[in-house]
Amino acid sequence: MLSPEIEALIDSALREDAPSGDVTSESLIPSSSMSKAFLLAKEPGRLAGIEVAARVFHKAGSPVSFKMRILDGRNFRPGAVLADVRGRSRVLLKAERTALNFLQRLSGIATLTKAYVAAVRGTGARILDTRKTTPGWRALEKYAVRMGGGVNHRLSLSDMALIKDNHLLVAGSVASAVRRVRQRLGPKMHIEVEVADFASAREAVEAGADMIMLDNMAPADMRRVASWVDGRIPIEASGGVTLRRVRRIAECGVDFISVGELTHSAPALDISLEFES
Fold this sequence. Notes:
With 277 residues, this protein is α/β, with parallel strands linked by helices. The chain has two domains: 116 residues, Aldehyde Oxidoreductase, domain 3, CATH 3.90.1170; 148 residues, Aldolase class I (TIM Barrel), CATH 3.20.20. Helix content is 44%, strand content 19%. It is built from eleven helices and twelve strands. The strands form three sheets. It has a six-stranded parallel β-sheet. Strand 10, helix 10 and strand 11 form a beta-alpha-beta unit. Helix 1 packs across helix 3. The radius of gyration is 23 Å and the shape is elongated.
């Protein structure tokens, strides 16, 4: 998971937080001072980002010992110790906020994803993320979705062809758009088409789309499309999805439900770094 891009993101975050050092700690604490601390969960959740947090501490200075108590993808309760940290006091304080920013954000995404996955359990529908991510954080946020039990949609515009309403306004009909993309990109490129009604869904399937996205459709319309498609290609539901509505959507017979909230609005979990006296 710790790709060169994520390593660079950690470096950038540390520079952002201490461009000229930690003036408070450096004024108050001797450079030789050593401390023990632990990452403490203040509320229940699903963990994501513990390896990133560890890397932040190691990059902030050395030597640092970081012992994980709970691994990514595992649930935890309030009061759980997620990791033990030991090292120079100044280093631990310099790394504290950056490490927590990563850990709280990613664990919040994993926890919200877990709630959505639980809400549709037994329906056969799976929860998808979107590209509505924090710039520069996409790989991490999509990793957190996986830790919550969700499924990643495309990582970027280069991964697959997704023909949406604005494309169609420029390119013309659904059938012609599918045909042109197929001619340009070949038979192996996955093509999905966003549709808003039954006629467009039928046109996309008959044109050879590999998947259709039902955008803001009413439940009765989604059920009609799902019945007609009858498993020939996967169906994604999108638009206005909330925890309160997601099971009703899943029961319409769709295969996937994309949820922008997972990455654009997940609340950060309450996790702290506590020093031992």
